[in-house]
Write a sequence for this structure.
């Protein structure tokens, strides 16, 4: 499993171009690793049942136990990437669940093991987690890898509104994200935040304000923008089947991005613009297109509309009174 990185030219700052420039045109591939971590929003320490949009069934311990070992996942992932995409360099990406939810010595053993495979071709470590599972000790551990690797700490922001975070049973407030961002400030970590657009109670204007909130943290280097998708096995999925609500069409979501991207700070690199669950899990919205077709549609539309990242960005200092 993994993610090939695309190449080309776009009017926004995108991850493929960033990596290409940084690694002299080498083909970089993310290798997704499921290390069998769980989540505090499922095991009761923060909550039960998980975030309402999350497919908790896919994270059951039974399933984790059936997973190939971490070594097998990485070796097989690298092999597929080399054969299928002529990959040359790799980023080890701890993705499912909360990958800092364990004591530091255990985290270290997992990261060390993963990074010991084909080390000469591994250029990065990427760790996905919740802001409330970050502390100074974990930041120091992640930073300890930064002398030889790029280390990307990816945290779920999801919404900037606590009311939304409560409604989706996130078990984590926006203030907790702010605290984690403060801990990561002035470190060597590359910080990525993950957002979800399209909660039915958030208006277009409310969603555009995410850009201001992201912009005010200089330590945020990457963003992953997602539209809300409803999946089987989630609480939201069960509710949606009983009482369907409006979700983005591809055209509507692209129009939203066309308004959002100009507001985003120009130095921020967009790692992802939409999410796509497996079609056998996806309830809505089903745009009935392949990932590459969705990306092409978005890019062509943004180009047609003359969208440039940061063209409407206003640094906070511009508003300062004299
Ligand atoms: S989305 Fe992440 S934090 Fe929320 S329940 Fe799922 S794994 Fe846990």
């Amino acid at each position: 499993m993994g993610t090939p990185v695309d190449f080309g030219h776009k009017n926004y700052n995108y991850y493929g171009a960033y990596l290409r420039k940084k690694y002299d045109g080498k083909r970089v591939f993310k290798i997704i690793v499921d290390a069998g971590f769980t989540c505090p929003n499922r095991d009761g320490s923060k909550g039960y049942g998980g975030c309402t949009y999350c497919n908790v069934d896919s994270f059951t311990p039974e399933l984790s136990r059936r997973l190939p070992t971490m070594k097998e996942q990485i070796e097989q992932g690298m092999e597929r990437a080399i054969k299928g995409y002529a990959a040359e360099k790799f980023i080890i990406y701890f993705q499912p669940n909360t990958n800092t939810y364990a004591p530091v010595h255990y985290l270290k053993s997992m990261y060390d093991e993963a990074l010991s495979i084909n080390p000469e071709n591994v250029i990065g470590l990427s760790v996905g987690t919740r802001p409330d599972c970050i502390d100074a000790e974990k930041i120091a551990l992640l930073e300890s890898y930064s002398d030889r690797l790029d280390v990307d700490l990816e945290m779920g922001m999801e919404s900037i509104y606590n009311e939304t975070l409560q409604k989706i049973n996130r078990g984590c407030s926006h203030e907790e994200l702010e605290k984690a961002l403060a801990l990561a400030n002035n470190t060597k970590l590359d910080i990525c935040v993950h957002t979800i657009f399209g909660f039915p109670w958030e208006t277009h204007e409310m969603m555009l304000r995410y850009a201001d909130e992201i912009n005010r943290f200089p330590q945020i280097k990457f963003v992953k923008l997602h539209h809300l998708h409803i999946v089987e096995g989630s609480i939201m999925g069960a509710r949606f089947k009983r009482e369907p609500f409006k979700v983005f069409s591809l055209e509507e979501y692209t129009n939203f991005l066309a308004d959002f991207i100009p507001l985003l700070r120009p130095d921020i690199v967009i790692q992802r613009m939409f999410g796509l669950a497996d079609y056998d899990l996806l309830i809505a919205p089903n745009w009935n297109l392949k990932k590459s077709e969705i990306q092409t549609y978005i890019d062509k539309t943004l180009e047609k509309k003359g969208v440039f990242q940061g063209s409407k960005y206003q640094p906070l200092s511009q508003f300062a009174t004299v």
